[in-house]
Specification:
Helix Hairpins; HSP40/DNAj peptide-binding domain; single chain; about 375 residues
C-alpha cells in the first residue's frame, strides 16, 4: 500500500491545514508547467493521489485502518471474492445504488455543511430585539477558479478508465450465481472527469476558508438557547456548491440589576426603615427608562411592587411581562444619641419597648401560608 503520509512529507497526526500546505508546496514544485521532467510528473501524480486520500476524512480513516481508501465498500464473507459485500447482491437484485446502470457520474457540486455558532447579547437586546454583527470563519467560493477547481486557463479531461460514466461494471460469482455490479470509478472518484491542473488556491476543492461578517436581526423575546436560522449563510459546498444554513444560538449576558424569569424581570431595592413605615416614591432606572415606584406606608421586608408591562417581550408577539421590584427594608446599624432617643420614644409610644415574640408554625402548609398572606 502506498505511503501517502510519506509522499506528502507529513506525520500521521497532521492536521488538514498541514496536509493542504504540504500539497500546495509540492504541487508548485512538481507541476508539469514548472518542472517538465518525467520523474516530476510521476511524483506530481503520487502527491495528488496522496492529497486526494488524506484530504477526505472518510478516505483517510479507511487508509489509516489499513483498507483501500478507494474501495466503495468493505470485504464480505470469505469466498465471495475480493472487494465484494452482501450489499452488492441486494443492490443488484433490488435496484440499489450498486446495481449496474443505476447511477451515472456524480456531480462535483454539492451542498455545503450547516454551521452552528454562538452569539452573545445583552439583556436589553433580548427584551427589545435589535441588530448584531457576527464575524466567523467559513468556506466561501474560491475567487481564483470561481468554484470550478481547475487552474484558470485549463480544463478537465474525460476519465480514461470509465470513459465519463463515473462507474465501472464488473461481474462477480456469488452463491446466487453471476451478479453484475457497478462501482464508482476509482480513477476519477465517480465524477467521470479528471481535473488535470488543480487550482493552487483551493487545491481543486472550488472553495477556500475566509472570514465573513454579517448583520443578524435578533427578534425581541429571545433567551439563552434560542436558535436563529439563516439560510444560505453556512459553508459553501465542494465545487462551489450552494451554501448550507447557519444556526445562531443566543447567549444572554447576565445583567447587573435585573434577573429574568421567563417573561418577567426581577430586581431588589433597599429601602430605609423610615421610608418603609411612612411610604415614599422611588425613582428606578428600568430598561424602558426612569420610572416612579410608589411605596405604600407600612411596607414590609419582602413586599413586591409590580410595574406592569415593563418585562420581557413575549417571543413572536407584542405582549410583555412585568417588572417585579422586591423591597428590602434596611434597619440602621449605627445611631447617634439623638436618633436613638427618638426611636426609644417611638417604641414607648407604640408599646414596643419589650415586645413579645410571635412564633410562626414551622409545619404550616401551603394553604395556611396563603391564608396568612391574604390577611
Amino acid at each position: 500500500m502506498n505511503d501517502y503520509y510519506g509522499d506528502l512529507g507529513v506525520s500521521r497526526d497532521a492536521s488538514p491545514e498541514e496536509i493542504k500546505r504540504a500539497y500546495r508546496r509540492l504541487a508548485r514544485k512538481l507541476h508539469p508547467d514548472v518542472n517538465p521532467g518525467q520523474d516530476a510528473a510521476e511524483q506530481f501524480k503520487k502527491v495528488s493521489q496522496a492529497y486526494e486520500v488524506l484530504s477526505d476524512p472518510e478516505k483517510r480513516q479507511s487508509y489509516d485502518m489499513g483498507a483501500d481508501p478507494f474501495a466503495a465498500g468493505g470485504g464480505g464473507p470469505a469466498g465471495f471474492g475480493a472487494g465484494f459485500s452482501f450489499s452488492d447482491v441486494m443492490d443488484a437484485f433490488f435496484g440499489g445504488a450498486g446495481a449496474a446502470g443505476a447511477t451515472g457520474p456524480r456531480s462535483r457540486v454539492q451542498r455545503g455543511q450547516d454551521a452552528l455558532l454562538p452569539l452573545d447579547i445583552d439583556l436589553k437586546v433580548a427584551v427589545f430585539g435589535g441588530a448584531e454583527d457576527l464575524t466567523y470563519d467559513t468556506a466561501v467560493v474560491c475567487q481564483t477558479c470561481h468554484g470550478d477547481g481547475s487552474r484558470p486557463g485549463t480544463g478537465r479531461r474525460t476519465c480514461d478508465v470509465c470513459k465519463g460514466a463515473g462507474q465501472v461494471q464488473q461481474v462477480q460469482r456469488t452463491f446466487l450465481g453471476q451478479v453484475m455490479t457497478a462501482r464508482a470509478c476509482q480513477a476519477c472518484r465517480g465524477y467521470g472527469e479528471v481535473i488535470t491542473d488543480p487550482c493552487f488556491d483551493c487545491s481543486g476543492e472550488g472553495r477556500v476558508r475566509d472570514r465573513k461578517t454579517i448583520s443578524i436581526k435578533v427578534p425581541a423575546g429571545v433567551d439563552t438557547g434560542t436558535r436563529i436560522q439563516l439560510s444560505g449563510h453556512g459553508e459553501v459546498g465542494p465545487g462551489g456548491g450552494p451554501a448550507g444554513d447557519l444556526y445562531v444560538e443566543i447567549r444572554v449576558a447576565k445583567h447587573p440589576t435585573f434577573e429574568r424569569r421567563r417573561d418577567d424581570l426581577h430586581c431588589s431595592v433597599d429601602l430605609p426603615m423610615t421610608a418603609a413605615a411612612l411610604g415614599t416614591t422611588l425613582n428606578l432606572d428600568t430598561l424602558d427608562g426612569p420610572r416612579d415606584v410608589a411605596v405604600k406606608p407600612g411596607t414590609q421586608a419582602g413586599d413586591v411592587v409590580t410595574l406592569a408591562g415593563l418585562g420581557v417581550t413575549h417571543l413572536r408577539t407584542s405582549n410583555r411581562g412585568d417588572l417585579m421590584v422586591h423591597l428590602n427594608v434596611r434597619t440602621p446599624t449605627k445611631l447617634d444619641p439623638e436618633q436613638e432617643e427618638l426611636l426609644r420614644q417611638l417604641a414607648k409610644a407604640r408599646d414596643e419597648e419589650r415586645p413579645e415574640p410571635v412564633f410562626q408554625r414551622a409545619d404550616k402548609g401551603l394553604f395556611g401560608r396563603l391564608k396568612d398572606a391574604w390577611k
